[in-house]
Amino acid sequence: GRKSLRQKVVEELKHYYNGFHLLWIDTKVAARMVWRLLHGQVLTRRERRRLLRTCADLFRLVPFLVFVIVPFMEFLLPVFLKLFPEMLPSTFETESKKEEKQKKKLNAKLELAKFLQETIAEMAKRNKADTG
C-alpha cells in the first residue's frame, strides 16, 4: 500500500543514517590501510579498490553535505541527482540503483562480447578466403 508522509520521512532518515554509518566504517578501514601503506606494507588489489572508492566517496560527500546542511536545499537534491547521478557517495545508493548499474554494465559487456565475436568470425572468413 501507500506510505504516509511520516513513514517516507522516517525511511529517508534511516537511509541517510545508514549511509553515514557505512561511510564512517569505510573511512576507519581506509585510515588503517593508509597507515599500513605508510609503514611499507603492500595492499591487495581488493584493498586498493576499497581505498580508492572510499576516497572518492569522501570527495563526493562535500557537495552532498551542502544539500543536507542548507535549509530546504534537500528538495533540490533529486534534481541534482538526475543531472549528476554519480554525485552521491556509494554508501548512500539504494538497492534498485545498484541493480540498475549492474544491469547496464552487464548489457555493455554483452554488447562488447557480441561485437568481438562478430569481428573474429569476419576475420576467420577473410583468412579462409585468402588461403583458399
UniProtKB/TrEMBL annotation:
InterPro entries: LETM1-like_RBD, LETM1/MDM38-like. The chain crosses the membrane at residues 58-81. Keywords: Membrane, Mitochondrion, Mitochondrion inner membrane, Transmembrane, Transmembrane helix. GO terms for cellular component: mitochondrial inner membrane. PANTHER family: LETM1 DOMAIN-CONTAINING PROTEIN LETM2, MITOCHONDRIAL, LEUCINE ZIPPER-EF-HAND CONTAINING TRANSMEMBRANE PROTEIN. GO terms for biological process: intracellular monoatomic cation homeostasis. Residues 43-128 form the Letm1 RBD domain. This is LETM1 protein. The gene is Letm1_0. The keyword Membrane applies. It is found in: Mitochondrion inner membrane. It is a single-pass membrane protein. GO terms for molecular function: ribosome binding. Its main location: mitochondrion. The keyword Phosphoprotein does not apply.
